[in-house]
Amino acid sequence: MKMNTNDDNKYTMLARSLTVKNLISQIDECDKMIDMWKRSLRELELGYTSEDEVEDLLALATEALKDKKSFEAEIGILSLGISKDMKLEG
User: What is the pTM of this model?
Assistant: First the structure.
């Protein structure tokens, strides 16, 4: 069974939308890691955690921030594709 171009566009747009949804979930996870590091700074000031733990969380937060920026860039690219798909259907 061969699909027409309109069906192809719908499936492409759906796939891009699902990918964006997954990327947003990944960004949420990155935000959690960054927040953990911020929380550890407050806990360090109160004496509830060690500098080593804060440093470990800083390394994780740094990677999370890099990943977050990458995911956000991917969302931007995918959003442009979705926008173009919608204009083709309209």
Answer: 0.82
